């Protein structure tokens, strides 16, 4: 179904006079160059399509307006932004793992238990957006039986973990100073949101172009390491523990991923610069788009 949807959209887009992309020129120069060479059309990267308040420095209490908790989607979080921020405030900077597979994806029951055992064993604090596993209604009520016995009680009592049902205020979480890494399905919106905040990614691509997003972040950018791929990939708790520890450590691979993610975040922020003397690449692209429209 997803492949058919993308095929139709891409086929129709080839008949257009130009492309507007939720990206940044400095973020993926190779991809934009190849796209222009293939299309022979104007391509204007006008991203990041994020609230301007997300493009500043991360703060301990999160300076983003609480209105952003609704996060462009009109959805009601399973836990309020205030509660998430309060929990994040109880942890030191760069210590928390955020886990979410997007609004359209979930994992199998066995994968869910492996993730739970692995992150608990790692000892790393985490916020996990939980949804019913494959084979159940994703919009239905989440049941604790899908997790190891006593898991939710233990992590809550120790303050190691916070489980959020169905949907979380993602922008609030990623922009918080305590958030260190993001275990993600590598959907494009999540990629942009995470890297704009200098948060590296543990990849678990599921469908559509997500595997390519992950591949780019691993091989070209150095801001991601993959945990698994798809819903059929059987994983072990020890593997989850090991990957989480590596990605969140302050030496070696984890340190490199964080440094490179921060550098990319600075490039994304610079694309929106408008200091009077110099305009960022995104604003220049918007200027070019408007000029093209007015002259056509």
TrEMBL record:
Top-down, what is the taxonomic lineage of the species of origin? Eukaryota, Viridiplantae, Streptophyta, Embryophyta, Tracheophyta
InterPro entries per record: UDP_glucos_trans, UDP_glycos_trans_CS
Could you identify this protein by its name?
Uncharacterized protein
Q: Name one GO molecular function term.
A: UDP-glycosyltransferase activity
User: Out of the domains of life, which is the source?
Assistant: Eukaryota
Q: What protein family does this chain belong to?
A: Belongs to the UDP-glycosyltransferase family.
* Key word Transferase present: yes
Q: Which PANTHER family match?
A: UDP-GLYCOSYLTRANSFERASE 72B1 (PTHR48045), UDP-GLYCOSYLTRANSFERASE 92A1-LIKE (PTHR48045:SF37)
**Which Pfam families does this entry report, sorted A to Z?**
UDPGT
**Alphabetized UniProt keyword annotations:** Glycosyltransferase, Transferase
* CDD domains registered for this protein in UniProt: GT1_Gtf-like
């Amino acid at each position: 179904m997803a492949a058919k949807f993308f095929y139709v959209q891409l086929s129709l887009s080839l008949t257009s006079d130009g492309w507007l992309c939720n990206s940044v020129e400095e973020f993926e120069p190779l991809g934009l160059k190849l796209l222009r060479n293939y299309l022979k059309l104007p391509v204007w990267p006008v991203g990041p399509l994020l609230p301007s308040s997300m493009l500043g420095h991360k703060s301990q209490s999160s300076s983003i307006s609480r209105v952003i908790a609704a996060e462009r989607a009109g959805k009601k979080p399973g836990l309020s932004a205030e509660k998430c921020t309060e929990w994040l405030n109880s942890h030191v900077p760069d210590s928390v793992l955020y886990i979410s597979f997007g609004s359209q994806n979930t994992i199998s029951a066995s994968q869910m238990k492996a993730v739970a055992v692995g992150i608990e064993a790692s000892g790393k604090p985490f916020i996990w957006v939980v949804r019913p596993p494959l084979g159940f209604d994703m919009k239905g009520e989440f049941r604790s039986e899908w997790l190891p016995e006593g898991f939710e009680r233990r992590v809550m009592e120790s303050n190691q973990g916070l489980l959020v049902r169905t949907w979380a205020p993602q922008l609030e979480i990623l922009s918080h100073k305590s958030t260190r890494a993001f275990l993600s399905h590598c959907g494009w919106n999540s990629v942009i949101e995470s890297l704009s905040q200098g948060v590296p990614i543990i990849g678990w691509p599921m469908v559509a172009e997500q595997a390519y997003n992950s591949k780019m972040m691993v091989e070209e950018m150095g801001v991601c390491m993959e945990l698994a791929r798809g819903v059929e990939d059987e994983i072990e708790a020890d593997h989850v523990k090991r990957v989480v520890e590596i990605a969140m450590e302050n030496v070696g691979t984890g340190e490199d991923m964080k440094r490179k993610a921060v550098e990319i975040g600075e490039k994304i922020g610079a694309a929106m610069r408008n200091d009077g003397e110099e305009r960022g690449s995104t604003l220049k692209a918007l200027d070019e788009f408007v000029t093209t429209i007015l002259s056509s």
